[in-house]
């Protein structure tokens, strides 16, 4: 684990970046520093469930705000875009209103972003930066919903619109780890699912910052009836890899993700969950061993 003192924070640096907030996400602590107090206070509110008070970090990020920053979309439209380039131990990231990089080897990042809605641009950058450093630490940032039922973690996944938020909303008896972005990490010979702050709490659930051993993965498919099928390992591996954030251009990260997902499908059952927009699917999950057709 890299400590804060390992970074080159001389007196001029501390003067330029006097405000900071430390977070811990899936056991990986990070610190965000800025010269703008309002931004840091907003970040503390946004990420209040993930605040961390120690002084050792696996990633440090400097944030600088500036007026009139705008990068045109390479395709000529005003749509949101996200460019990532990995080269010589560095991940360079650019979007409509920010540009920055992560020095992967030295666990350090820097970003210049617009002072128009800066917390939103910080979060876009932070999602990518965290995913890059997480995979280095054998932690997967996963596009999925996470729930805890009877002290076991359930992971629901699939493309946007497949029903992750719907399943979360219909599972009020569970602790919700997120409806869009969660973390998965190998811990004590098990794989645990963790909450991340990169979710919306506007869908009728209250995010819980905790973790649980994963019981199963469920690929969501909206259907006129509810049933589940066990997936082959090959199909499950392909589907899991497709749901991992920010590895498609990261060669070393892709190799780590492949290794972790291979272990996941060997140890944890993966299913296709066909469901209607109600909570009937829980009857199948509670007794899935008897309800699955191979």
3D structure, described in words:
- By secondary structure, the chain is of the alpha+beta class.
- The chain is 27% helix and 35% strand.
- The chain is built from eight helices and 15 strands.
- It has helices at residues 11-16, 37-46, 118-136, 164-169, 233-242, 251-267, 281-286, 288-291, and strands at residues 19-25, 28-34, 59-66, 82-87, 90-95, 98-103, 108-114, 139-149, 152-157, 175-178, 181-187, 190-195, 211-222, 227-230, 270-275.
- It has a seven-stranded mixed sheet, covered by helices on one side.
- Helix 2 (37-46) links the parallel strand 2 and strand 3 (59-66).
- It is globular, with a radius of gyration of 20 Å.
- The protein starts with 10 loop residues before the first helix and ends with a helix.
- The model is unreliable at 1-13 and 288-294 (pLDDT under 50).
Which keywords apply here?
single chain; 294 residues; alpha+beta; Phosphoenolpyruvate Carboxykinase, domain 3; 2 domains; 7-stranded mixed β-sheet; 5-stranded mixed beta barrel; 35% strand; globular; disordered C terminus
